[in-house]
Amino acid sequence: MQQGHPTDLSALNNLAWLYQRQGEFTKARELAERALAISPSDARVTNTLGWILLNQGEAARAVAYLTAAELSAPGSPNIQYHLAFALQRAGRAADARAMLETLLGSGSSLAEKAEAEKLLRELKRG
């Protein structure tokens, strides 16, 4: 692949996402980091890398990437859910709860709505 082409970025990011869904986090991370090198401020890429890092137990680093993704694409329900999940894992339950309450109260379409509702219930129980 030639670096710098938008289709390369999308292909790398999508492949990284598929690998992480299959639990192949090392390969997923490698591809996401390659995509990040092409476009360090792309919200799709920082979201993917943040989610992969979270699944590898690196919650604090995940929060940093997911925060960057949210700042680049404010209002993205998917990114907001990922960030809330990472905040919870990083020990920032109050921030996670506030984000989930806003997200779920907005009526936005969210593929992971059931998971977000479950996490919010857990956070409310303490």
Name the descriptors:
126 residues, mainly alpha, Serine Threonine Protein Phosphatase 5, Tetratricopeptide repeat, 7 helices
Explained architecture:
The protein has a single domain (6-125), classed as Serine Threonine Protein Phosphatase 5, Tetratricopeptide repeat (Alpha Horseshoe), CATH 1.25.40.10. It has helices at residues 6-21, 25-38, 43-55, 59-72, 77-89, 93-105, 113-125. With 126 residues, the chain is an all-alpha fold. Helix content is 76%, strand content 0%.
Provide the gyration radius in Å: 14 Å
Order of helices and strands: HHHHHHH
CATH architecture: Alpha Horseshoe
CATH topology: Serine Threonine Protein Phosphatase 5, Tetratricopeptide repeat
CATH top-level class: Mainly Alpha
Shape: globular
What is the residue-averaged pLDDT?
93
DSSP helix fraction: over 70%
Secondary-structure-based class equals mainly alpha
Strand content: under 5%
Main sheet specs: none
Distance between the termini: 47 Å
| Total domain modules | 1
Give the full name of the CATH homologous superfamily.
Tetratricopeptide repeat domain
Distinct helical segment count: 7
How many β-strand runs? 0
Low-confidence stretches: none
Helix-strand blueprint:
Elements (H helix, E strand, L loop, with lengths): L5 H16 L3 H14 L4 H13 L3 H14 L4 H13 L3 H13 L7 H13 L1
Question: Summarize this, please?
Answer:
The protein is mainly alpha-helical and 126 residues long. Helices cover 76% and strands 0% of the residues.
